[in-house]
Amino acid sequence: MSDKKAVVLYSGGLDSTTCLAIAREAGFTPYAMSFAYGQRHAIELDKACAYAPRQKVAEHQVVTIDLRKIGGSALTAAIAVPKDGNFDAGIPVTYVPARNTIFLSFALGWAEALGAFDIFIGVNALDYSGYPDCRPEYIDAFEKLANLATAAGVDGRGVYRIHAPLLHLSKADIVRRGLALGVDYGLTHSCYDPTPAGLACGRCDSCRLRLKGFAEAGTVDPLPYA
Amino acid sequence: MSDKKAVVLYSGGLDSTTCLAIAREAGFTPYAMSFAYGQRHAIELDKACAYAPRQKVAEHQVVTIDLRKIGGSALTAAIAVPKDGNFDAGIPVTYVPARNTIFLSFALGWAEALGAFDIFIGVNALDYSGYPDCRPEYIDAFEKLANLATAAGVDGRGVYRIHAPLLHLSKADIVRRGLALGVDYGLTHSCYDPTPAGLACGRCDSCRLRLKGFAEAGTVDPLPYA
After folding, report:
1. What average pLDDT score do residues B150-168 get?
2. Per-residue pLDDT tens digits for B79-105
3. Chain A to chain B, count of Cβ pairs less than 8 Å apart?
4. Is A91 in the B-facing interface, judged by CB distances under 8 Å?
C-alpha cells in the first residue's frame, strides 16, 4: 500500500464509493470513515461495511453519533421523506443540519491522529439535491478551517487538503468514472427510504438522481428497486 | 426567558461556565451542549449536569461521541497527562485532534434545528494551553464556514455568529467576570486528571492555569485539591 494516507468519508452510497475508488486510483491508501448517525436508511451502513473490505481500505471506522437528538431533518426525525418532488423547490427536508461539517470534523480529527493530510468527500454540486454543504465555497471554507484548527496544520508538518473529486461531475459522469474504476454499484445503496426488505424505493430524490445518472450514462443500475 | 436563543458549549469547567453566564447576561436564552467524548476526566460531565439546571438553561443536551477511536491525545488515549510542565513547550499532548471543530459542528447543527444563530464557546487565547483551535483566526474561520454550511445561513434567514467572549481575557479576568455574574466555581471542574475520588490534582496545566487565575484575581478557588 501507498504511504500516502487519506481519510475518505464513505457512506456506502454511489457518490462516496466512487470517491473512494478515485482516492485509491490517485495513489492514496484509504482510511474509510462511516457514520451511524440515526439515519432512517441505516441499511447503507450494512452495505458500506460489507463492501469496504473488498475495496482495499487500510481501515474502516464506523463512528456512532446521534443526530436524531439535534433533529430538523427528514432523514433523522419523524418527517416524511418526499417522493416524486420538484428538484427546484429549494433546500429539501432531507437536508441534515451541519451534517457534512460534523462528518468532515471527525475526518479531520482522524487524519491528524493518523498523520494524514488528505481528506476525500464525495459531494457534488451538479445533479445534487440543493444542500448548502455540497458547494465548492463550502469545501474551500472547510479546508481553510482545517489548516487553522489543527496542531499539524499550524506547526508546519503539512497542509490539509479537502478533495471533492465529484464536485463538478454529473451523476452520469460519476457512474462512468466508477465503472471505469471497477466499482460494483450493485453493492452500494443510495435510497433515503428503503422498504423493510432493504429495496430502494425508486422515488426519493436520491433514487431518482441515481437512476437518471445510470440512464444518462447509457447503462443499467444493477440494484433491484421496489 | 428571552426569545434570543443561543447554543452554549458547556463542559462544566471554569471557562465554559463563565461563558454561559456571559451569554445569559447578554440576553440570550442558553441551550447548553456538553460532550461525553471518552475523556478521562469524565467527572466534569457529572458536574456540568448537576450545575446546569441551576443556571437557567432552556435545555442541556449531552452528546455522546467516542473520540478515543480517533486517539492522538492524552485526554482520550493511554498517554500520561503531563504535570508541572513548561507552558512554553509548544502544543501539549492534551490537545485533542479537531475537538473544538467537532464540538462547534454539533452546536451548529443544533442551532440550525432550534432556529438559533448564536453559538458561544469559552475558548481563550491568553493564559491558554497552546491549542490551535482556541485562536481568534480559528473562530473567525468557523464563523465563515457556518454561514456557508447551513440552509439557514444561505437562504437569508439569519447570520451565524460564533461568540468567544473569553478570547482576550486572562484567567484572572475570567474569574473576576464570573464571580461578578454569580458563578459558583465550587460547582465547576477543570482538572484533566482527577483522583479516583474526584479531587483536582492541582498539577496538570488546567489546574495550574485555574489556580493562577484565582491567585491573580486576589481570591481563593473554592474547589478542594488533592
Report:
1. 89
2. 566 666 665 556 666 677 888 999 999
3. 141
4. yes
Contact A11, A44 (CB under 8 A): yes
Residue B80 burial (C-beta neighbours within 10 Å; 0-12, 13-18, 19+):
exposed
SS3 A29: strand
> Is B101 in contact with A149 (Cβ distance < 8 A)?
yes
Range B5-216 classified under CATH 3.40.50.620: yes
Nearest to A133 among B104, B132, B149 (CB): B149
Give the closest residue to B128 by CA, choosing from B202, B219, B184, B210.
B210
Greatest alpha-carbon span in chain B: 53
Q: pLDDT tens per residue, chain A (226 residues)?
A: 568 999 999 999 999 999 999 999 999 999 999 999 887 777 888 999 999 999 999 999 999 887 777 776 666 665 566 666 665 555 666 677 888 999 999 999 999 999 999 999 999 877 555 788 888 999 999 999 999 998 877 787 889 999 999 999 999 999 999 999 999 999 999 998 888 888 999 998 889 999 999 999 999 999 999 9
What was the ipTM of the complex prediction? 0.89
Whether residue A144 and residue B141 make contact (CB cut-off 8 A), yes or no, is yes
* Overall pTM surpassing 0.80 (yes/no): yes
* Cβ neighbours, 10 Å, residue A169: 22
**Shortest distance, CA A108 to any CA of chain B (angstroms):** 6
Q: In chain A, what residues touch B64 (CB-CB under 8 Å)?
A: 64-66
CB of A101 within 8 Å of any CB in chain B? Answer: yes
Q: Do B149 and A155 touch (CB under 8 A)?
A: no
Whether B64 and chain A come into contact, CB under 8 Å, resolves to yes
| Cβ-Cβ contacts under 8 Å, A132 against chain B | 148-151, 153-154
